[in-house]
Design a protein that fits this description.
7-stranded mixed sheet, globular, Rossmann fold, 6-stranded parallel sheet, Quinone Oxidoreductase, Chain A, domain 1, alpha/beta, 26% strand
Length: 302
């Protein structure tokens, strides 16, 4: 099968189209004939070797965390889908930039989404949903730090669909898009916390951090305490701030929530550009260098 792989760590150019063996289908998993996969920060951090001490891999490997397509084979113990069903979801940390992909967590792709949209919402949407779940019910106003990014905009959209008021920090170039989602945008920067306080008045906010640096500190300081803030970036960030964390683990309930909100609330990702699988290196470069306003999606098959 065709797959975008690396055989060494390095710049985007090390990611090349090759022939790869067809993966086996483990118990409790499915294999899909993939039509789309999305590009996530995890992918380029694996590719450039920056996290190899935390995630050691035996090269060569196929990159990619999430994908969408049609079920091609069903593992032992799987009864909720059948060959031919449209699905989207998550595999392991690698393996999704390929014609055949093993998924360990999935949901049926809603008719409201294309496969490209389903792939683009998989990891970002699950991460956002898990962050909101960890945060708990939004009882006043939600502040999303980094609302212009994939996880941030997904979190904002999910929260709004569930009835919350959302204020989001982002670069001015993303403000029009955020307004279209129903978010009150605030310019990211050193004055963001003051602008948020002016926007929300005496409200007691809850904060979701999707950025992962010290710029969130003044926003967390607006809350009553650490139990009202969650980061989806890292446990290190959570410990530094004294708040909780969440991540993009395989989570069927989160995937099913995304699919339901696609139908009920028109939840959908922001796709900047679709690339042929052969151009995965270009997709990495554009996404990593922040040239895109939205997700990069790899088109694997029509």
């Amino acid at each position: 099968m065709r797959a975008a792989m690396i055989d060494r760590y390095g710049a985007p150019e090390v990611l090349r189209l090759r022939q790869a063996p067809i993966p086996d289908v483990p118990v409790g998993a499915i294999r899909i004939r993939a039509t789309a996969a999305s590009v996530n920060p995890l992918d380029w951090k694996i590719r450039d070797g920056s996290i190899q001490q935390h995630l050691p891999l035996e090269l060569p490997v196929v990159l990619g965390r999430d994908a969408a397509g049609v079920v091609e084979a069903v593992g032992e113990g799987v009864h909720d889908v059948a060959v031919g069903d449209r699905v989207f979801g998550l595999g392991t940390a690698i393996g999704a930039y390929a014609e055949l992909v093993v998924l360990h967590a999935w949901a049926r792709t809603p008719d409201a989404w294309t496969d490209a949209e389903a792939a683009a919402m998989s990891l970002t949407g699950v991460t956002a949903a898990r962050g909101l779940r960890e945060l708990g019910a939004i009882d006043d106003v939600l502040v999303v730090h980094g609302a212009g990014g994939g996880v941030g905009s997904a979190a904002a959209s999910i929260a709004i669909a569930q009835g919350a008021r959302v204020v989001g920090t982002a670069r001015p170039a993303d403000h029009e898009h955020l307004r279209s989602l129903g978010v009150d945008p605030i310019a990211a920067g050193p004055d963001a916390a003051d602008a948020v306080r002016a926007a929300i008045g005496d409200a007691d906010p809850q904060v979701l951090d999707t950025v992962g640096d010290e710029s969130v500190d003044p926003l967390v300081a607006l809350t009553r305490g650490g139990d009202r803030a969650v980061t989806v970036v890292s446990q290190v960030q959570a410990e530094r701030l004294g708040i909780r964390s969440a991540d993009g683990q395989n989570d069927v309930a989160a995937l099913e929530l995304l699919a339901r909100l696609a139908t009920e609330a028109d939840l959908r990702p922001r796709i900047a550009r679709e690339y042929p699988l052969a151009d995965a290196a270009a997709a990495h470069r554009d996404a990593e260098e922040r040239r895109l306003r939205g997700k990069a999606v790899l088109r694997i098959a029509d």
